[in-house]
Structure formats: C-alpha cells, structure tokens
Design brief:
2 copies of one chain form a homodimer.
Chain A (H helix, E strand, L loop, with lengths): L8 E5 L4 E5 L3 H7 L3 H11 L13 E5 L13 E6 L6 E6 L3 H7 L4 E5 L6 E6 L2 E6 L8 H12 L5 E4 L2 H4 L7 E3 L3 E3 L4 H7 L2 E7 L9 H15 L3 H9 L5 H6 L21 H6 L2 E5 L9 E4 L1 E3 L2 E3 L8 H7 L8 H14 L3 H16 L18 H13 L3 H5 L3 H8 L9 E2 L2 E2 L9 H9 L12 H4 L2 H7 L16 H20 L14 H12 L5 H21 L29 H15 L9 H6 L7
Parallel strand pairs in A: 1-6, 7-12
Antiparallel strand pairs in A: 1-2, 3-4, 3-6, 4-5, 7-8, 9-10, 9-12, 10-11, 13-14, 15-16, 17-18
C-alpha cells in the first residue's frame, strides 16, 4: 500500500445495515488517486445507467484525496459524489474544514454508501468502530441542533460531523452537505441524495497517524510553503478580507453578477464587500486543517430583532454575490442572515440565491404573480422576501417547492419565456462569475461535468498576468499570458492543461488557494509533495494524466446518462451585452465560443459530438469505459 | 537566454558563402529544445514541399540538444537532419562522440546549411571564427586521409571533424556522416545531402564553457549517476563487450536477423559475438564525452594480407549483424573489415549490409545473375563478395550503382518479385532487430518518421521485465510489464508514452544507454538535470509534450512529402513465420498488427489516415502545421 493512503474504503449498505471494509490495492490508488478519481470510478463501475438520483440505486461516495491531511497549507479537502439530482449527471462537490483529515486519521480513504435506510440514521466512525445509529430524534432538526445532539449523544464535542439539514431531508435538489455547520459540499444536490437515503449525518473521530513516505521532505516543503504563503498577496488578502475581498475588484472590472446577470456593476458593491464584513459583523477568522490563511469568516449579529449565529461561519464571496448583487441586496446583515439560514437548512447558497433572483426577474416581467409567490412582493432588492424564500425553499413550501427543484425545472414548469431567466448549465445554476469578462470561466461552465461550476480552471483575469503565468505555470507548458477575453485556440489550450491540473488538485484534496497558479505553492513542489507523501516515483506527467483520466471518466458517465454536446452550452443571456459597468456592451461572441468548444473537443481527443475516442480512452487505461 | 544553450545558431548559405549568426530567442528553445525539435522546425518552416533531397533547395541541420555537453554520462549526442534522399521524407540521424559538445563549446547550438557550393568546401568553426574553406584537394579522399589533411591544414590535431567520405560524395542514398572516423550519423543518407552540396566536412574547435543554471545540482546528479552507473548490469556489459555483447542473447532468443531475416538463429553467432571481439581483435575501449561506459570498441588487425585500421573504431551490434548473420558471415575479421571500409567510405553499415543481403537473396533465387553482379558469386556467406560489394556501392560501380540507391529502389528497378527480399520501411532498410520477437520494435519500424528505425522505443524484451518497468518508468505512467509479443492496446499505450520519452531524449542529445528504462539514470533525475541545466521551471509533463510535439511535426512533414498511412507498414516477410530457432513458426499477426497501428493513430489524436487532428496540433502549439 502506498503511504499517504490508508488502503481502506468503508462500504455501507443502508438497506440492510451492512458495513464492509474494502482494500482496493495499489493499482486503484495509483490510477484514481482520490476525490474525483474515486467517485468517477465507483459511479461508472457500480451505478446502472438511468437510475433515479433520489432512489435507493444511487450511491454516495465520500472521498479523501491523495494529499488530504498532509500537514501543509491548503490540503484539507474531500469530495462527495453521486448521480446528481440537480443535473441528472455526474455529481460532485468538495469541502474543506477538518472532516476529511479526520476520516483519514480514523483509518479510511473514503466511504461508499448504498441503498436506503428504512428509517433516519447517522453513521458514527471512531477508528475501527463503525456504527449505524438511529437518527429519528434528529431528523427534521436544523444542522446546529443536530450537531449538538449528536455530539452530546456520543459524548464527544470534538467529533467532526458532515450532515444534511432539513433541505436535504426535503430533497431540495440543491441541498448541500455541511461539516462543522459551515464547510459545504455545496453543489449538485448531494444533500438530497443523503436525504433520500434517510442518512442524516456522518460523524467521524480518528486517532491514528497518517503514514507518510518521507516525513522530512514534507517538513521541508511545509517550511518553504509557510515562508512564502503569508507573503503572497492573495493569501494576505484572503486572511484580511476572506473571499469577499474580491467583490470590489470584480465590480470595478464590470463583472459582478448583478440583477440575475443582467448587469456587471452593482452600485451597492461597497456595502457587500469583504471590507464591510471586516468593519462590521466579523467576529473572528476561521480556517481549515493545517492552513494558516484562515480565509473563513465567522460573523455574528446579536440584535434582539435580528440574530446571526456565529457557529454557522460567514458568507463567502459566492454567497455574498448570490444574495447581494444578484438580488440587488446591498445589506451585509441580510446576506449574513441568508448565509446562516442556508447553512442551518443545508441548502446551497449559490443555487438558492440564483433561484430567488430568477423568481424576481420572473416577477418583474409578470411571469410570476404575487399570487404565485404566496403573496410575497418579490422585487429585486427586497430583503425580507429573500429571507422568506430561503425558508420556503428549504421547507418546500408554496413557491419554495417549485424553486427547490432548481431554476431549469422551475422554468420548464412555469413556461411563458421564463427559461431565459434561468441562469443554468445542465440544470445547475451559474456560480457568481460573469464569463463575459473572463471567457475561460464560460468554457468551464459549459464543459464542467457537474453543470455550471467555477472550479474548473483558474480565472482568465489571473492568467492574463504575465508574472503569475510565466513564473508559475511554466511546468504545465503554459508560458504566455492571455487576455481575459481571448477565445482563440491558445485560450482553449490553456484551458485544457489547467483543467487537467485542477482536476488533479481536486483528486488530491487540495484547495485552489494553495498551489500555483492561483496560490503560491509551486507546481513542482506539489509534485514533490505527492512523491514524499506516497513514496511513488511519480511525476507531473502522471498527475496530469490522472487529471485527464477523471475528466474523461466523468464525461463518459454523463454521456451514459444522456448529457451530450448539446448540453455544453451557456445561457443565452451571456451572449447578450452587459448593460452597465466597465464592460458595458460586451457579450461573449457566440460563434467564437462554440468554435472554442469544438476545438476543445478536438484537443481532448473527442469527436465533434464530444465523445472520447477509443484511442483516448485506451491511452488513459480506461478500456472499460469504451 | 536559458542556460545550457548558447542562444546562437549558425546559418551558412553555400551558394554564396554567406555566414550568419541567428539568435532565435527563448521561446524557440523552450518549444523545440534541440535535436529533432530544431530539425523538424527548420524543415517545416523553410523547405518547400516536394523538393529534390539532393538538390540545392534541401537544407541540412546540425542540432545539439538541451543536454548535449552536460558533463554527465550519456549526454554527448547531436542530430543531423534534412529531407532524406533515402526515404523522401523526414530525415534524421544522431551520433555520439565529441563533436556535439565541441560545437556547444564553440558557442553554438546548431548549424543550418543551405544552398550548394560551386566547388568542394569544408567549414571550419573555431569559436567566433567561421570559415568556408576550399576542399578541392580533399574531395575524393577517404575519411581517414581527409581528417589528417584537415587537421594538418588547420594545425590542430584536436579539431573535431564531422565529414563525409566518397560514399557521400557519390550520393549513395545511405551515405553517412562520421565524426572522429567512427561516430556515425548513420541513417537516412544525410551524407549524400552533404555531398550534394559539395560540403566535405565541418571542423569544430571550441574553448568556451557551456553556462549552466545550477552547477552544484549538476554535480550532485553526476555523482549519483556515477555511483550507480557502473553497477548497472547493462552498463557493465556495454563496457565489457560493447553493443555486440547482445548477439548471443538475441540469437538464443531466436531473433538474430539471419539470411536477410529469413531465420532468427545463426549457427555462427558465437563467432560474431562481443565475446569474440573481446578475445580476438579488440585493442581498446573507447567512448564519448564525459561517459565512463566506453561502449565503443577499437579493433585492429595487422596481418600483412588483411589490415583493419584502429582509427576507424570497431563494429557495433548493428554492423556485426548486418554483415554477419544477415549475410551468413561467421567471421569477425571480415565484419571488422567491412566496418572499417564503411567508415572509410562513409556509408551506413545497416543499409549496406542489408543491401548486400538483398542482392544475395536475389542471386540465390535467380533474380540477379552473376552477370548482373559484375561476375561476383554472391552467395550467402561469401566474405570476399561482401567486401567487394561495399567498395562497389561506395563508388557506385556496376551493381554497386544499383544497390547504392537502397533496396527499395533497386527492387523496383530489378522487378521479378525481388520486392519481397527488400527489407525496408519507407525506403530505409530495417535495423538488426527482428520484430517477430519484440512487436513494439515492429511498430517502431512502421511508425518511425525516418523509415525503419530501431531508435523509437526501448525493446519489448526489456519492458517485459517487471523490475525494470515497475522501478523505472512509473513516472511515465507505465507500471505494468508486458510480454514481448503482446500487441494489445496496452502495448500501444506503452509505445505511445515511451515514444514521447525517447523523442525527448533525442531532442536532449541523450544516449539511450543513459536514462531509464534502458539505462539506469532515473527519469526524474533527467528532469531535474534539465531544470539544473536550463534554469527552467520545467517538468516531465513539459518534456513529454515536447517529445510529442516533434513526433507530430515530423509526421506533418512526411504527410506533406507524400508519405501517408499506407507507408506505415512492415515488409511482408515479418508476417511470415521464422524458420528456425526459439521462435520458429512465430510471425507477427498481421491483422492485430495493423489494428495496433490504428489504435496508435487514435491514441495520438490522429484520424484513421494517420493525420493529426487540428485540435492535437493546436494543443501542441503547432498552429502553423495545420
């Protein structure tokens, strides 16, 4: 068994409460490496085609990565995957915090959960002791209460709990999984998959050491990383202002998603900035395992008429924009409350905010009436309405029941031209980045296997900076910075290489704020870290190929489930000009964009329908995917 | 300018004696890296399609590699390239010795020679002083005399001379280029290209230091290499017995090319073995720049009736077999003489031996008569006839004139079914490895851009050894040893990855006896060496991509010159069973073989006609090749 891994995967069948420990062997680890690699493997190998994502045939996989738990900044993450109830295709979402390293310390690389429990349960893992416990008394509780109850019941207030809230129980199609109440596997509705299985939570406590091949080398890299990490401007900014530190710059750049992506500049941007958080509601900085950045915010409001509980963390950039400019809310307290509510109910802030903005635009255009909206005056900027809708969505009450299925399904039911206000790809709502000012992110939205997802490649704006490109991604074969609006084959090439790198980082359990090009850990130090952790004589070549492998596997999974090249598209609005701000008048040129997608297929060794060639699959050692 | 390179390329137009120094800039070096990379670049960019390889429009490029001259074992090599007069396609051949490092020490990474001199000339390069000198008095001289004359004329008996002999002057289509009389750029007829330009030789003397980015790191890797190098079984064997140390094992394996590839076992094998050389005619071991292996033999025979001059080195494995078992000659003295004559005349020993064996089989089958053969009784095993034919070929006398065009052209002229005795691919004669016992070498023959060439991937027999595969090529993503006769997609995948690695090693100026998997220098130490030499933040990913880039460039060049998928074939004889030896009855399964070629195309991102896709070319940054 390679170092760095534990060599054990837990398999739990909830239908018959069967718990097994599987030992997949080194070839499995070397080919799939963790995270997305594990998930694609299990979904392709074990799920029949065409199953109902919310039925007992679906499986949900919790997968740590090759570097999860290595005591180096930015390596705390794990991924959860299943067939997505939101997209109907490959579903995956990652989270930071402490839960992933804790699972490894308990002695496991991942958990495969199948079947459906006849009654609500939670799983408790304490080293070699794995229990399926009754959760009837916890079911229906919000996440905070549930965490308190489980910790009390287990008599351990340090146990790490990944759980769903009422949103997941109610099968909201974008329900999330939260650990420590604030680190979210946010997207793709994986919380609903847990809910469909009557699985409330997975509590983990581990006391073992993760074995590393070369601890001295890890220490050496750790020291180097710590030396440079807090000097790096992005790290400093993340520490000072959190991810919302980006709001003002993005607004100045003219691409802050505003009023459901109609605009790129929001006049209330300053009020929803990281600076505003820091100056008002911030109580402390928080972070993840072994990471000094502490980019997470913990905010608190204790007014009698308006409380925000500090235990639910604070809003990230995505949340700030989804409930802020997207809904034209210029009030950080309301956003903080929306964030707290989403974490309490266990629903994804991005899709929730986007669903509300969609409904607002429908209302503005007379497509939804006040009657349809349970009497709510759903105008852009109406804070009370936003908070009410969050609750309705989580509880699937009234209009919330419609919106809980996501904007694509809602628009289909509503009709009347509402489709054009649904900002989704493959059924998943866009993240809070407007690709009209960074077209590579648009390619990422269109091509991500999980539907619109901003975690596919680093932002074009970053990659336009000569210093960052030349100094950091040269090992990837990228040595030329490119304009954020460049849509030439050069951008596609940059996209292809970075997508493989980011795909590997995902498999590794690494946060994108760590390694270059977004972070400052040199690419080759990540490679050296994998070598030191696993003891493998590995290279960037092998790691990039592993990244490429999982991209192809997820693609094959989606093709099998009926998602084709026709789904690699963007909402029409993005081909229409921005209506204000620095990029006023700018749209993504449609023909060029789809030409770029077509070049992407060709670069990937896929045919013009986006289907991987036999040769490409064989080259990636994926004979079983043909 | 990156370290390791000098940043200067000499361009000489022989038509008007114009000498220029070009400074291509770092992007050129990073994309093309040297050797095959430089050559493919110049041929594609500067040669019009369809030119006569022996006309003044052809150019000949002398290219050092990224590591040429780094003081580490096995890094002395340089490549010469042009449109090949033998294949009509991409022409290239590499040599070791000291000439390549000397060119770098003179301050240059390569030389591009164009046009045609009105009279015989040679080029003399001494650091910044570059002269085109009259060679009328040297023209027609054999290589030994020419070297003496040039050294005397320059007053420098250490000057390194790469030159052609009478074979090149006479435009033998497989004339070679020799440095120090014994290190041959043997294949593809590049000596004829020099001859067609009236260029006899390039003498080089350099006194500068090659700048390295991190000399300490190079020293550290050097020490490590030296520590392991002479302990490695292959290195020891090469030192003791030279490349002919392989004869007995290959014969025992049943794949020693015998009687023009009709047989795989030669009863006289012991007499033509490396052991026999060591016990009889070996005078000393020689080698290349900075390399302790000293795998080169210097042999000598001083009998009055039979002399072999020690200055011409000694026969390599390829030469031993081409004049030995292939012609059924079991006499090492004759082989040594044949080697000396080929080096004296400047013709390729592989194609010369193969051309003679071809004529022998034609004679045996009554297709060529004694009359056709200038009265020579050209039976297999006739030593005198072999030596006579070498002279006739070099001088283009009688039957030699026909055979000097290579067996493919000769068979075309002869007709009468002689084609089946021409063991060629794309017009170039097979090297002395029978792919019926190592099918990957057959793929290499069929797919090499230079025609039948054994320097495309390491031998299947090596890659069947678990220790070697698992321990050494893991960074390339290859972790499973495969049977030498395996022709499945797994073998194709191994082939694709190793071809890219070997293509890079070629670009680097590295001998395949150095790095893994054939040598013992770990793959990742080669990567570290490129980093230490150039100062680039590079990776195995980038180096493999560079290898892939040049494979695609050479492919595009060949397609442009009319070599297509229909030329990616093997001689029919290889699909017929071996007639004796351990593999008696074994043939390459034809359908499986061409299916493997077809999978290769698909893995490469080429269409079923072997044409690289637009996406693949763009991915490799080769927009100008579309």
């Amino acid at each position: 068994m390679p170092y760095g891994f534990l060599g054990k995967i837990i398999r739990i069948n909830l239908t018959d409460s069967m718990v097994k420990i599987e030992k997949p062997g080194e070839a499995f680890y070397r080919a799939y490496m963790g995270g997305k690699g594990f998930i694609t493997y299990y979904l392709l190998k074990e799920l029949p085609a065409g199953i109902n994502p919310l039925g007992p045939e679906n499986k949900i996989i919790f997968a740590t990565g090759i570097l999860t738990g290595v005591p180096i900044p930015a390596m705390p993450r794990f991924a959860v995957g299943a067939k997505s109830p939101l997209t109907g295709g490959y579903g995956q979402s990652e989270a930071g915090g402490y839960w992933g390293p804790e699972l490894k310390r308990a002695g496991y690389d991942g958990i495969v959960i199948e079947g459906k429990s006849p009654k609500p349960v939670y799983i408790n893992i304490k080293d070699d002791d794995i229990q399926i416990r009754d959760a009837s008394h916890i079911w229906g509780k919000d996440t905070g209460e549930a965490q308190d109850l489980i910790r009390a019941e287990l008599g351990d207030d340090k146990v790490r709990i990944a759980q769903i809230g009422p949103g997941g129980e109610n099968l909201v199609r974008y329900a999330c999984i939260l650990n420590e109440l604030k680190h979210a596997n946010g997207r793709n509705g994986l919380g609903a998959v847990m809910g469909s299985k009557n699985l409330k939570a997975i509590a983990v406590r581990g006391t073992k050491d993760i074995p590393f091949a070369d601890g001295d080398k890890i220490k050496e890299i750790r020291k180097k990383c710590l030396d440079i990490y807090m000097e790096y401007p992005l790290s400093r900014s993340l520490y000072e202002l959190g991810t919302s530190g980006l709001v003002k710059a993005i607004n100045a750049g003219g691409i802050l998603p505003t009023k459901n992506f109609k605009y790129g500049e929001f006049e209330g941007a300053d009020k929803i900035s990281g600076e505003t958080i820091a100056q008002t509601i911030l109580k402390r900085r928080e972070g993840c395992y072994a990471c000094p950045i502490r980019c997470k915010r913990a905010v608190q409001i204790e007014r009698e008429d308006f409380r925000v509980d500090i235990n639910y963390g604070g809003p990230e950039y995505e949340t700030v924009v989804a409930f802020g400019s997207l809904c034209e809310i210029a009030d950080m307290e309301v956003i903080a409350k929306a964030n707290e509510m989403c974490n309490r109910y266990g629903i994804d802030t991005i899709s929730t905010g986007s669903s509300i903005a969609f409904a607002m635009e429908c209302y503005e255009n007379g497509i939804l009436t006040k009657e349809d909206l349970d009497g709510i005056e759903l105008t852009f900027g109406n804070s009370d309405a936003v908070l009410k809708l969050i609750e309705k969505i989580a509880k699937r009450e009234g209009i919330g029941n419609l919106l809980a299925d996501g904007t694509a399904r809602a628009a289909q039911k509503i009709g009347k031209g509402s489709e054009k206000y649904s900002m989704n790809v493959k059924g998943q709502e866009l993240a809070m980045h407007d690709p009209r000012g960074k077209v590579g992110i648009g390619m990422g939205y269109a091509l991500s296997e999980t539907g619109a997802d901003h975690m596919v490649v680093p932002h074009d704006t970053l990659l336009a900076q000569e210093g960052i490109v030349v100094d950091s991604v040269a090992p990837l074969g990228i040595t030329e910075p490119l304009d954020p609006l460049d849509l030439s084959w050069k951008k596609v090439r940059m996209f292809v290489y970075l997508q493989q790198w980011w795909s590997f980082l995902n498999m590794a359990g690494v946060c994108d704020f760590g390694p270059a090009p977004r972070g400052c850990i040199p690419v080759m130090d990540v490679v050296n870290l994998v070598r030191a952790t696993t003891g493998w004589d590995t290279s960037l070549w092998e790691l990039m190929k592993a990244g490429e492998r999982t991209i192809n596997m997820a693609r094959i999974y989606n093709l099998r489930e009926g998602l084709t090249a026709e789904d690699d598209i963007l909402p029409e609005r993005l081909f229409e000009p921005l209506l204000n701000g620095r990029l006023k008048g700018t749209a993504i040129p449609k023909d060029e964009f789809y030409e770029a997608i077509s070049i992407y297929y060709s670069m990937m060794g896929w045919n013009d329908k986006g289907v991987p060639s036999k040769g490409k699959l064989l080259e990636l050692n994926l004979e079983y995917c043909i």
